UniProtKB/TrEMBL annotation:
Function: Catalyzes the synthesis of GMP from XMP.
Gene name, Swiss-Prot/TrEMBL: guaA
Catalytic activity: XMP + L-glutamine + ATP + H2O = GMP + L-glutamate + AMP + diphosphate + 2 H(+)
Pathway where this protein functions: Purine metabolism; GMP biosynthesis; GMP from XMP (L-Gln route): step 1/1
GO molecular function terms noted in the UniProt entry: GMP synthase (glutamine-hydrolyzing) activity
Keywords: ATP-binding, Glutamine amidotransferase, GMP biosynthesis, Ligase, Nucleotide-binding, Purine biosynthesis
Residues that coordinate or bind ATP: S224, G225, G226, V227, D228, S229, S230
EC number: 6.3.5.2
Assembly: Homodimer.
CDD domains linked: GATase1_GMP_Synthase, GMP_synthase_C
Protein name, per record: GMP synthase [glutamine-hydrolyzing]
Taxonomic source organism: Hominisplanchenecus faecis
Length: 525
């Protein structure tokens, strides 16, 4: 059990994970629980503070999510945000009503209670992110209004003596200019947290915990070369050395040089002490994929082949005590195990375990971490930045970035084109940063080259060509559920184009994909 924990009670709001991340940015450990969590369980966790999130309902409707008023009488500070603020007011005897107009977007908030602990150091007028229909028309007894907006009489209210705070806007969203300060004020000034949950301490403690749990047992991990499994491998290796075996399946669908990079870090000449097994299964995959053009069929073959190879390797190794997985906190929450958010994706790595590996228990050393925290842990462990800051890369790899049949030649083309594209974008971003001190607004969240199945006539030198067209994809996205094509400067695209045409044999055209998601997907399959 962590010494200091703040709990986020999730009422179905879209920003639940953001709230927890902001708290952790204050170096205070934070976990998300559904509003259905029993009060006894919450008491047993002895949290330093509780935050109630927003949510899509109206708290005065009979079937809306609610919580017993006992929660507000535990003596534990409570901060309600949006729906949470309304619910707190409603449960404690205030009034919440439907407003005539929805207040949405960036809004100027005026702080009325200058000595409020939660607004310490915050400007008297500050920009906040509002998103609500209902509003608190009357505060609960014992509360005083601490902030308002032009349209909203109670932008914030508090009962300082009982340590209860209600905020109508969303301090967790970056559009709220001083939101981080407010959350920091809550966890430090109100809850009295010390804020000593730091990544070096996490790494040290986790290594200790792994040692205690594993004893002299054996651990098996499927290493994909992605951020999560790499950091899990790093942690386990530091904890138990050669008791860990990592199986890395090179399916021949990785980005250029990636297989060797993974081996460089985790293999026998790398910086970690572990048993590293690289399975070079390129030919095996290409054989299976020969003649297959349907995207789902390709995905299925790639997935099944991985399981088969992993199974073969696991059989060679024999019984192990633990199977390690790189599950991270958003996987846990999105699988419906943590908060209240609808099950967005069913993650194969939470819950569903391979039945062909002979193991006793599962071990998930990153289960408590957000992605950016996983990256920090990776740096702390000395994993190279290049690997730690890798973009998301799908499990089926380049197999779903090649339209039509996959073969070695097409993989070579897309690897080389993708390498050039990433290199040019990275250089352009670095140049922009050097000049402006920040990343450019067009900085894509994911960018890669794909291979269309189109061949067309071109001319190179004096010769007629009949070659492939490469598609460049780059998107700006927050959650990868929706996305816009990134506005990469034309000059950058042009240099990518000319390098690809000149350097990659078999390509005579380059397209930029302007499609947003929906209707497109981010991947290109
Ligand atoms: P789409 O193409 O669905 O992609 O818009 C959304 C995000 O998910 C990634 N993606 C995958 N990741 N296994 C993964 O681990 C997969 O099969 C897979 N398919 C898509 C994609 O790269 C993007 O970030």
């Amino acid at each position: 059990m962590k010494e200091e924990v703040v709990i986020v009670l999730d009422f179905g709001g879209q920003y639940n994970q953001l709230v927890a991340r902001r708290v952790r940015e204050c170096n205070v450990y934070c976990e998300i629980y559904s509003y259905r969590t029993d009060i006894e369980k919450i008491k047993a966790m002895n949290p330093k503070g509780i935050i109630l999130t927003g949510g899509p309902n109206s708290c005065y409707e009979p079937d809306s999510p609610t919580y017993t008023d006992e929660l507000f009488k535990l003596g534990i500070p409570v901060l309600g945000l949006c729906y949470g603020a309304q619910l707190m007011s409603h449960v404690l005897g205030g009034k919440v009503e439907r407003a005539d107009v929805r207040e949405y977007g960036k809004t100027e908030v005026f702080i009325d209670k200058k000595d409020s602990k939660i607004f310490q150091g915050v400007s008297a007028q500050t920009t906040c992110w509002m998103s609500h229909f209902d509003y608190i028309s009357k505060v609960a007894p014992g509360f005083e209004i601490s902030a308002h907006t032009a349209d909203c009489p109670v932008a914030a209210a508090e009962n300082e003596a009982e340590k209860l705070y209600a905020i109508q806007f969303h301090p967790e969203v970056l559009h709220t200019a001083e939101g981080t300060k407010m959350i920091n004020n809550f966890v430090k000034n109100v809850c009295g947290c010390k804020g000593d949950w730091k990544m070096d301490a996490f790494v040290e403690n986790t290594i200790k915990e792994i040692r205690e749990k594993v004893g002299d047992g054996k651990v098996l991990l499927a290493l994909s070369g992605g951020v999560d499994s790499s950091v899990a491998a790093g942690l386990l290796s530091r904890a138990i050395g050669k008791q860990l075996t990592c199986v890395f399946v090179d399916h021949g669908l990785l980005r250029k040089d990636e297989g060797d990079e993974v081996e460089g870090v985790f293999g026998p000449n790398g910086q970690f002490d572990l048993n590293f097994i690289r399975v070079n299964a390129q030919e095996r995959y290409y054989k299976k994929l020969a003649g297959v053009t349907e995207p789902e069929a390709k995905r299925k073959i790639i997935g099944e082949e991985f399981i088969r190879i992993f199974e073969e390797e696991a059989k060679k190794i024999g019984a192990v005590d633990f199977l390690a997985q790189g599950t991270i906190y958003p996987d846990v929450v999105e699988s419906g195990l943590g908060g209240e958010s609808a099950v967005i994706k069913s993650h194969h790595n939470v819950g569903g375990l391979p039945d062909f590996v002979d193991f006793k228990e599962i071990i998930e050393p990153l289960r408590d971490l957000f992605k950016d925290e996983v990256r920090k842990a990776g740096l702390e462990l000395g994993i190279p930045e290049k690997l730690v800051f890798r973009q998301p890369f799908p499990g089926p790899g380049l197999g779903i970035r090649i339209i039509g049949e996959v073969n070695a030649e097409k993989v070579r083309i897309v690897q080389d084109a993708d390498y050039i594209y990433r290199d040019e974008v990275d250089k352009a971003v670095a140049a922009y940063k050097a000049e402006h001190g920040t990343a450019p607004s067009w900085m894509p969240n994911q960018y890669f080259a794909a291979l269309t199945n189109m061949r067309s006539v071109g001319v190179m030198g004096d010769e007629r060509t009949y070659d492939y067209a490469v598609a460049l994809r780059a998107v700006n996205t927050v959650d990868f559920m929706t996305a816009e094509a990134a506005e990469i400067p034309f000059a950058v695209l042009q240099s990518v184009m000319s390098r690809i045409i000149n350097e990659v044999r078999g390509v005579n055209r380059v397209f930029y994909d302007l499609t947003s998601k929906p209707p497109g997907t981010i991947e290109f399959e």
